[in-house]
TrEMBL record:
<dbReference type="InterPro" id="IPR000299">
    <property type="entry name" value="FERM_domain"/>
</dbReference>
<dbReference type="GO" id="GO:0005923">
    <property type="term" value="C:bicellular tight junction"/>
</dbReference>
<keyword id="KW-0963">Cytoplasm</keyword>
<protein>
    <submittedName>
        <fullName>FRM4B protein</fullName>
    </submittedName>
</protein>
<dbReference type="InterPro" id="IPR018980">
    <property type="entry name" value="FERM_PH-like_C"/>
</dbReference>
<dbReference type="InterPro" id="IPR047176">
    <property type="entry name" value="FRMD4A/B"/>
</dbReference>
<dbReference type="InterPro" id="IPR021774">
    <property type="entry name" value="CUPID"/>
</dbReference>
<dbReference type="GO" id="GO:0005737">
    <property type="term" value="C:cytoplasm"/>
</dbReference>
<feature type="coiled-coil region">
    <location>
        <begin position="126"/>
        <end position="153"/>
    </location>
</feature>
<keyword id="KW-0175">Coiled coil</keyword>
<dbReference type="Pfam" id="PF11819">
    <property type="entry name" value="CUPID"/>
</dbReference>
<dbReference type="GO" id="GO:0005912">
    <property type="term" value="C:adherens junction"/>
</dbReference>
<feature type="domain" description="FERM">
    <location>
        <begin position="1"/>
        <end position="67"/>
    </location>
</feature>
<dbReference type="InterPro" id="IPR011993">
    <property type="entry name" value="PH-like_dom_sf"/>
</dbReference>
<dbReference type="Pfam" id="PF09380">
    <property type="entry name" value="FERM_C"/>
</dbReference>
<dbReference type="GO" id="GO:0090162">
    <property type="term" value="P:establishment of epithelial cell polarity"/>
</dbReference>
Length: 281
């Protein structure tokens, strides 16, 4: 019976009804003691469970409104009095429905509950709300910290691109009123391939290898200039020298691939890298 209702709630796929039954004594998980509280539980998919819960809330509200209306109606009444009362009660009924609808809009999709007035679960519900708020604030803080970290990473990437191209990319994150930083282009990072520099081999595969060799050769020259810059700290200088050595190694590997292919095709091998590059530094 509705008068025995203590709580209606759902959590994801679970719908439960808590009622007081003086004939049964059970142990309540919330009060940790003996009480007449009986819990009936049903399981289904989340959308169905929420729909059942909303209908149950509406039925309970109808029961409360009907009970309140009966208390106001005298034992003996005329038809005119009943018509007058219905006219006067129409407006507050509409406002109650609007209030109930507004409350339903605030219900979370994952869980919800109805706590009757004077229930022992009221304090538990408030405690759960506080825990939920603290958990959400903690998640918000973690997300903000991660966002700041990603923004800093994006700034570093944009600065590195600006040092290579001499132009700050539009993706650089700026705060309100903040001006983009001025960045000087690195010395020796720009080079241009002449139009007549690329080979015109009849064999497409060999032409592709020759093109890769020329491009890598320019990269070696740029890496050498960067490694030769003065006034570099020890770590940076070491890193640039290693980059230069790696570029030279890759150039030699490309030349080896070219010579292997030329020998396979019956052509004479070349020694391009040893002729165009000085000794390793």
């Amino acid at each position: 019976q509705w008068k025995q209702l203590e709580n209606l709630y759902f959590r994801e796929k679970k719908f439960a009804v808590e009622v007081h039954d003086p004939r049964r004594i059970s142990v309540s998980r919330r009060t940790f003691g003996q009480s007449g509280l009986v819990v009936q539980t049903w399981y289904a998919n989340t959308s169905l469970i929420k729909s059942i819960w909303v209908m149950a809330i509406s039925q309970h509200q109808f029961y409360l409104d009907r009970k309140q209306s009966k208390a106001k109606i005298p034992s003996a009444r005329s038809l005119d009095d009943i018509a007058m009362d219905l006219t006067e009660m129409r407006t507050p009924k509409v406002s109650k429905l609007a209030t109930l609808e507004a409350k339903n809009q605030l219900i979370m999709a994952s869980n919800g509950s109805l706590i009757s007035s004077g229930s022992q679960d009221s304090e538990v519900s408030e405690e759960q709300k506080k825990e939920k708020i603290m958990e959400l604030k903690k998640k918000e803080k973690l997300l903000q910290e991660k966002l700041l970290q990603k923004v800093e990473e994006l700034k570093k990437i944009c600065l590195r691109e600006a040092e290579l191209t001499g132009k700050m990319p539009k993706e650089y994150p700026l705060s309100a009123g903040e001006e983009p930083p001025q960045v000087r282009r690195r010395v020796g990072t720009a080079f241009k391939l002449d139009d007549n520099l690329l080979p015109t081999e009849e064999d497409p595969a060999l032409q592709d290898l020759e093109s890769n060799f020329i491009i890598q050769q320019k990269l070696v020259e740029a890496a050498k200039k960067l490694a030769s810059e003065p006034d570099l700290c020890k770590n940076v200088k070491k890193k640039r020298k290693q980059d230069y050595a790696d570029a030279v190694k890759k150039l030699q590997e490309i030349e080896n691939s070219i010579n292997e292919y030329r020998i396979k095709c019956g052509k004479k091998p070349t020694q391009k890298s040893t002729l165009t590059l000085p000794g390793k530094q």
